[in-house]
Write a structure and sequence with these properties.
Helix content: 25-40%
Structural class: alpha/beta
Largest sheet: 7 strands, parallel
Strand content: 5-15%
Strand order of the largest sheet: 14-13-15-16-17-19-18
Radius of gyration: 35 Å
Number of helices: 24
Distance between the termini: 69 Å
Oligomer: single chain
Length: 735
């Protein structure tokens, strides 16, 4: 067939043209693929062009060498070249088969092309070379699976599957079923090959999941969801940081998942639950055991310790491993949590130890605002109680000091009375004064190495002293009787007990656990669909001091969907006296969604119509009821005219003022130091279809953050803002 066609020029493009007999043969360009198994279905996925070139170069250079490893997918996967295996670096995942692919055939299920094995591809390529060189087509080859491939011409090559039959009289291969297309070279199959990720990593973000093993509406794992989040971030960098990319100021942000669910449920608790779970509605009960119960586990002291230990140790492990694999990395680290994961991170961050310089600054803030517990919540959970910012000290009268030689001597006297003099050196080493001693918990004493017997004596002494203090009269300057919480007297001078402050300890009500320390200081904490506000309220925290900030993290963003049933706000706990809306997150295309603009326009129009109609009716009624008597005094008529003018003017001024929901620009609101003086609560714009029924999309609203361009863009904007890099075009309404 090919010999009868007119001669053609040699191929000059990626797509091979049909050669002539005795024509020039050009070797096929291989591309590397890996096999991804989902729900027992295999799918061959191409490596990026960048990774495939690296693999091919290593294959050509060290084909016979053992132990050749090539990092791929931004360094998150290693390919063991000789074993042809793709192995995850940062998390546990089943190894995937890797193949150097040159020949493909179309599958029978989803019409996607499947690569032949490397050995059989070499046979096909050799047969193709002979056919092109000698012009001998219609060659038949049989694969190891007894499948027949016929090379009719360069553009027509077919694949026949054998028919399984017990009959000896079987038909010829060409008559067995429907033939399948065979293609040579990856450029001839319909597959999208990504270019690859930038090599430069500017920032590292650890992402902690919420309840259950599934993280989105498609029941995907945290690894898959974070992969989506990372892909969206690469797209947003190309569209909104193009100038910085062209100037090579921006590379990419690496997102790594942190999984704690599998560690929790590998403790044997699932076996215990299985014994007590009723057999009815089996699937629902197992779903609850696997997801909803994670909230109760976190409120249990035993399993809370397991969860916080797992999250902290996993983030520290990932950080060390990342630095080992990226020794030139000089960027910062941030953390993000979804749902319950954000609460776990918040509790961890509130129990981190600040540097000495930051502690001194915190103490100065406490002296400036004595009644406000500006460094709240961690003194009763760390080993170094007195060296942390002590909320009870900040709330106490300014004339007292936190630590002195006299205070340590006082503790020694107390220990002598309790017949525990042998532990004086331990308390002196920890710089414990009497006030710090009264704040100690059993965990603190246990961490200091105090045995059970002496520990019980000290705890009994602390409880008796605090009980006497609670029954004592008010502090100097107060009248007898207890001041009402939140009253001026309570704010002015408080008792020595830090919990009597108006601003309760952020750590109040936390499950008693030894919170581990992180090996780094996070730059920003992002909370997605977070119940932090609800948990703080349930724990008894009514207000957060405006001067309070996380000890080692200066940024905090609470991002939520308006229909998310699990999300709660933070800002009203800082400024409860004001009512204001959360910051509306700008659309990533630089505008509000059309249905929101239409809704605001209709609201504004209805307000204007209402005010105009009321104004017209008021004028008509006043003209109808005006007295017809002309013999009125000039003074009274002038006064009445002034009164009418004033009455008409008032509704007009009110009519011009749009309602709060319509106002686009709100005056700046001071929401404290929790996010460095910037706004904390950010709400996403719902999609048009979601606005029809908010109940129907409530669950999706809680699981939408992984693929939300608006969420990703805010994360990137705030991360790069710490490096002095801004968006190409500032989005309207953004801070």
């Amino acid at each position: 067939m090919a010999a009868q066609e007119p001669p053609r020029p040699p191929p000059g493009s990626a797509e091979p043209l049909e050669p002539e007999p005795g024509g020039r043969y050009e070797a096929v360009v291989p591309h590397w693929f890996y096999c991804k198994v989902t729900d027992t279905r295999e799918r061959w996925v191409p490596f990026s062009a960048q990774d495939s070139e690296r693999l091919e170069a290593a294959h050509g250079a060290g084909k016979e060498q053992a132990g050749v490893v090539v990092p791929t997918s931004g360094g998150r996967y290693d390919v063991h070249l000789r074993e042809r295996r793709r192995v995850a670096v940062y998390w546990e995942e089943e190894a995937a088969e890797v193949r150097r692919c040159t020949w493909f055939y179309k599958g029978d299920k989803d019409n996607k092309f499947i690569p032949y094995s490397e050995a059989f591809s070499e046979e096909l390529e050799e047969a193709y070379m002979i056919a092109v060189t000698l012009g001998e087509w219609k060659k038949k080859l049989e694969s190891p699976n007894r499948e027949v491939i016929i090379l009719h011409n360069p553009k027509l090559m077919v694949h026949y599957h054998p028919v399984a039959s017990s009959d000896d009289w079987v038909s010829t291969p060409t008559e067995q079923g429907r033939p399948r297309t065979v293609k040579r070279g990856v450029e001839n199959i319909a597959v999208e090959i990504p270019n690859g990720e930038p090599l430069q990593i500017d920032h590292l973000v650890f992402v902690v999941h919420g309840i259950g093993p599934a993280c989105d509406i498609r029941f995907r794992s945290i690894v898959q969801c974070v992969n989506d989040f990372r892909n969206v971030s690469l797209s947003m960098l190309q569209s909104h940081f193009r100038k910085a990319q062209e100037q090579q100021q921006v590379g990419r942000v690496e997102f790594l998942p942190v999984n704690w669910h599998s560690s929790l449920h590998s403790t044997g608790v699932d076996v215990d639950l299985e014994r007590i779970t009723l057999p009815s509605i089996n699937r629902l009960r197992h779903f609850i055991n696997d997801t909803i119960l994670d909230v109760f586990f976190y409120n249990s002291s035993t399993y809370c310790q397991t969860i916080v230990d797992t999250v902290a140790s996993e983030m520290n492990r990932l950080h060390r491993l990342f630095l080992q694999r990226n020794p030139r990395f000089k960027g910062g680290v941030s953390i993000a949590g979804h749902s319950l994961g954000s609460l776990i991170l918040f509790d961890l961050l509130t129990n981190q130890k600040a540097d000495p310089e930051e502690k001194e600054l915190c103490v100065q803030v406490g002296e400036a605002t004595a009644p406000s517990c500006s460094c709240m919540g961690m003194g009763h959970r760390s080993k170094e109680v007195s060296t942390k910012c002590d909320p009870s000290w900040i709330c106490s009268q300014g004339s007292r000091t936190t630590s002195s030689t006299g205070g340590i001597e006082e503790v020694k006297e107390i220990l002598k009375k309790l017949e525990l003099s042998e532990y004086c050196d331990v308390f002196e080493k920890e710089k414990m004064d009497r006030q710090a001693l009264l704040l100690c918990t059993e965990n603190n004493l246990k961490e200091m190495g105090i045995p059970l017997g002496p520990r019980m004596k000290i705890l009994h002494y602390i409880s008796s002293e605090t009980g006497m203090k609670g029954r004592s009269s008010a502090a100097p300057g107060h009248s007898e009787g207890e001041a009402e919480p939140g009253s001026p007297s309570q704010l002015g001078d408080s008792s020595e007990d830090g919990r009597s402050c108006q601003y309760r300890d952020v750590g109040l009500g936390q499950v008693s656990a030894n919170y581990p320390q992180l090996n780094y200081k996070p730059s920003i904490f992002f909370a997605f669909g977070s119940p932090i506000g609800m948990f703080l309220t349930v724990r008894g925290v009514k207000r957060i001091d405006p001067n309070y900030s996380l000890p080692t993290c200066k940024g905090f963003f609470n991002i939520f969907h308006p229909f998310d049933p699990v999300a709660y706000r933070i800002e009203p706990m800082i400024v409860p006296e004001l009512e204001f809306e959360p910051m509306l997150l700008p659309h990533h295309k630089g505008r509000k969604r059309m249905h929101l603009e239409l809704k605001e326009g209709l609201t504004r129009m209805s307000v204007d119509l209402k005010n105009n109609l009321l104004g017209s009716l008021r004028v008509a009624w006043q003209s109808f009821t005006r007295s017809p008597v002309l013999a009125l005094e000039a003074g009274s008529s002038e006064a009445e005219a002034e009164a009418e003018a004033g009455a008409e003017k008032q509704p007009d001024t009110r009519a011009e003022e749009p309602p709060a929901a319509v106002k686009e620009e709100t005056p700046p609101i001071n929401v404290g130091r929790l996010n460095g003086g910037n706004r904390i609560d950010y709400v996403l714009q719902e999609k048009p279809i979601e606005s029809f029924n908010e109940y129907l999309f409530a669950l999706q609203g809680h699981l939408c953050y992984w693929e939300s361009e608006d969420t990703v863009l805010l994360v990137l904007k705030e991360i790069y803002q710490t490096q002095g890099i801004t968006l190409d075009q500032p989005l309207p309404g953004s801070q």
